[in-house]
Structure formats: structure tokens, C-alpha cells
Design a protein that fits this description.
Structural class: alpha+beta
Number of helices: 1
Order of helices and strands: EEEEH
Largest sheet: 4 strands, antiparallel
Number of strands: 4
Radius of gyration: 15 Å
Bound molecules: zinc ion
Helix content: 25-40%
Oligomer: single chain
Strand content: 25-35%
Length: 80
């Protein structure tokens, strides 16, 4: 992780990602692979709510998830 000068306390982690709280500035740090995003806590809560809702709706679609097995994490740019 890049040194941001923050004092981090791990909140949760997995093989894919980790989440820390900064004890200094209060930001939430979300790290996925080599990238870390820093959020205001309320923005992090908003994003996790949206992702949780998307997960529930995705599961309701009952798609064949084996088709995405090789994707891992892929960055996709939005068209301009
Ligand atoms: Zn900080």
C-alpha cells in the first residue's frame, strides 16, 4: 500500500480486498489489488449500500457465474 501518511486500523480483509479506517483523518481506505480509494465515511457507507443492493439483484438474476471465472478483477472504462 502506498504511504499516505495516514494511521490505519484494519477493519476487514479478504484475499481480494481490505478496508482500513484512518485514525488520523477519519477516511476509509478500500484497497483492491494495487489500488486504494480513500472515502469520507458517509460516501463509503453509501457505496457499500449500493453494492449490497446490486449483489442482491445480481443473485436474483440466477446467471451462470462460471462464465466469469477467468475475469478476476477487470477495470472497464466508460465510453465518453
Ligand atoms: Zn488519514
Amino acid at each position: 500500500m502506498t504511504d499516505t501518511g495516514c494511521t490505519l486500523q484494519r477493519l476487514s480483509s479478504s484475499a481480494t480486498c481490505e478496508v482500513h479506517a484512518c485514525l488520523g483523518c477519519g477516511a476509509v481506505h478500500l484497497t483492491i489489488g494495487p489500488m486504494t480509494w480513500r472515502f469520507q465515511p458517509e460516501r463509503f457507507v453509501e457505496i457499500t449500500r449500493v453494492v449490497a443492493e446490486a449483489v442482491a439483484r445480481y443473485r436474483a438474476l440466477n446467471l451462470d457465474e462460471s462464465a466469469t471465472a477467468g475475469l478476476g478483477i477487470t477495470a472497464v472504462s466508460r465510453p465518453q
